[in-house]
Write a structure and sequence with these properties.
The protein is α/β, with parallel strands linked by helices. The protein has helices at residues 3-26, 29-34, 47-55, 80-95, 125-141, 154-171, 186-190, 194-200, 207-211, 218-227, 237-243, 253-259, 274-285, 290-317, and strands at 61-66, 100-102, 146-151, 174-179. β3 (146-151), α6 (154-171) and β4 (174-179) form a beta-alpha-beta unit. It binds zinc ion (ZN).
Length: 325
């Protein structure tokens, strides 16, 4: 077979595969709602497309989603945080299209305190921050002067806050991080989320109930039901109770070593409330709906897009970031 024939055959089969994939994809509700053919993900572009977008000044900022692969109770996929951060980043980039590119997400984060549940993978703090720094430095090297890290996992929040000011100074760019959950105000959530209404009404009677608010409960479950329903499984509290997991002491010495820094401080009188908290999260997840998820995605998208817009303006004006208070 000559080269040109095999090449034609390959292109024909690629075209057929793409046509099939596109037809299948376009038919899903998700494609209509959350995925747009405009390629905001850096990795979906060829080097030619990305180079030309930069050269023509179309790309003015980058978002780096950061997440975690960790336990999210009995019903959510382990990659919930990376998935939610990527979804919000993509939606914000589409809103500002074509000014923002979304870098490959960091799928792992700092989550040693979840190691009692199997499936959790944690980075050390220094691994996580080194990873994010390297991504920021790569993008900066390509000439992107405005970068927002959009974080989806609480454990990454402090390491990012601690690192960003020094990186900003060193690289001389408009750089910041934002955990998308910061978009939500308890008051606003109380208008449409059952768990936040109960919190506002003072009906959450224990520390475990008051602290089991966003992780794996009504907020994250609703977001995934709207944006990534394939990552949500049905469950009942009966099944949960039958699994009889013990997250206060029922783990191996190897897990105990991971948990040690988190088993000494910060617990209220009476010790580790983790079993009660875990159960409270599972109960809250039952309040989740797709419609609530759509509202949550909208609030976070508006918040992140607004922040990136302000950062782009600051870069254009040569104004300091963060703006002087
Ligand atoms: Zn989460």
């Amino acid at each position: 077979m000559s080269n040109s024939i095999s090449r034609r055959g390959w292109i024909a089969s690629l075209k057929a595969a793409l046509a099939g994939a596109c037809a299948g994809w376009a038919g899903t509700a998700q494609a209509q709602r959350y995925v747009h053919p405009r390629r905001v993900f850096l990795g979906e572009n060829t080097r030619k497309e990305f180079r030309e977008a930069l050269e023509q000044g179309r790309i003015q900022a980058a978002i780096i989603p950061t997440g975690s692969t960790e336990q999210h109770n009995e019903h959510l996929a382990l990659d919930c945080d990376a998935t939610c951060a990527t979804l919000i980043s993509q939606q914000a980039a589409l809103r500002l299209y074509p000014a923002v590119t979304v870098s490959t997400a960091c799928p792992l984060g700092y989550a040693p305190y979840h190691m009692a549940r199997k499936g959790t993978i944690t980075l050390r703090k220094e691994t996580f921050t080194a990873y994010v720094y390297d991504v920021i430095r790569s993008l900066t090297t390509h000439g992107i002067r405005t970068i927002l890290v959009v974080n989806g996992h609480n454990g990454n929040h402090a390491p990012l806050l601690e690192s960003i000011p020094a990186w900003r100074k060193e690289l001389g760019i408009t750089l910041d991080s934002e955990t998308y959950i910061s978009a939500y105000r308890d008051e606003e959530l109380a208008e449409f989320l059952t768990s936040y209404r109960l919190l506002k009404e003072g009906k959450l009677d224990t520390i475990a109930r008051r602290t089991a608010m966003s992780h794996a409960s009504e907020v994250e479950t609703s977001i995934l039901m709207a944006g990534h329903p394939e990552r949500v499984r049905p469950f009942t509290m009966d099944e949960y109770d039958r699994a009889a997991q013990n997250y206060e002491s029922g783990y191996s010495p190897a897990v105990a070593r991971y948990l040690e820094p988190f088993t000494k401080e910060g617990w209220p009188k009476g010790g580790n409330p983790e079993n009660a908290r875990d159960r409270a999260r599972q109960e809250r997840a039952l309040y989740a709906t797709k419609e609530k998820g759509e509202r949550l995605i909208e609030i976070a998208t508006r918040f992140i897009a607004g922040k990136v817009e302000k950062m782009i303006e600051a870069t254009a004006k040569g104004a300091p970031w963060p703006p002087a208070a």
